[in-house]
Specification:
The protein has 172 residues and is of the alpha+beta class. It has a single domain, classed as NAD(P)-binding Rossmann-like Domain (Rossmann fold, 3-Layer(aba) Sandwich), CATH 3.40.50. Helices cover 31% and strands 17% of the residues. It has a five-stranded mixed beta sheet, with helices on both faces. The radius of gyration is 16 Å and the shape is globular. The mean pLDDT is 95. The structure holds zinc ion. Zinc ion (ZN) binds next to helix 3. One of its GO terms (cellular component) is cytoplasm. Its EC number is 2.7.7.-. GO terms for molecular function: nucleotidyltransferase activity; thiosulfate-cyanide sulfurtransferase activity; ubiquitin-like modifier activating enzyme activity.
């Protein structure tokens, strides 16, 4: 969604909004250019669904806790190299991101991602959002989809809430 002409622009949200409106001029988009932290995230209290397209676990944990606190479903995806993962968190029903990753993985300043991986995981996240908003189908709740595009490996595994999860135990 970002073109050569956008190189050097700091504000990805505006660039994205411009492209989406060129695809469909009848949609309404409110974009925010901000760093997500414990305070700024409160802008998203009215959301019907939250979608994790983040590149770091620090912010991902903030989003996870916000989703549980505000009782908003959260679609999580993560990508690195050829590998991706996807799950949908329904507050008070399913395990959360902190149940799945209790310890923060080491922060990497740079990591490789093959372009099609973002396309695949992004489309799968969009499908999860459509399912949540329409009630059609079964979201990946309590399930983790693991994808390795190098070998075209797709597998779904179940995972459970951790009894000692510091986030779940705070809200449920
Ligand atoms: Zn949890």
């Amino acid at each position: 969604m970002h073109f050569e002409e956008d190189l050097g622009k700091k504000d990805k949200s505006t660039s994205l909004k411009e492209k989406l409106i060129r695809l469909n001029s009848s949609i309404e988009i409110e974009s925010f250019s901000l760093k997500v932290d414990e305070n700024s995230i409160n802008k998203f209290k009215e959301s019907n669904v939250l979608v994790d397209c983040l590149d770091n676990f620090h912010t991902r944990y903030i989003l996870n806790e916000f989703a549980l606190k505000e009782n908003i479903p959260l679609v999580h995806a993560g990508v690195e190299s050829y590998y991706g993962q996807l799950t949908t968190i329904i507050p008070n029903k399913t395990p959360c991101i902190k149940c799945l990753f209790p310890n923060m993985p080491d922060k990497k300043e740079e990591f490789p991602i093959i372009g099609p991986l973002c396309g695949v995981l992004g489309s799968l996240e969009a499908m999860e959002v459509i399912k949540l908003l329409t009630g059609i189908g079964d979201p990946l709740s309590g399930k983790l989809l693991i994808v390795d595009l190098k070998s075209m490996f797709f597998e779904t595994i179940n995972f459970n809430r951790k009894n000692d999860c510091v986030v779940c135990s705070k809200y449920f």
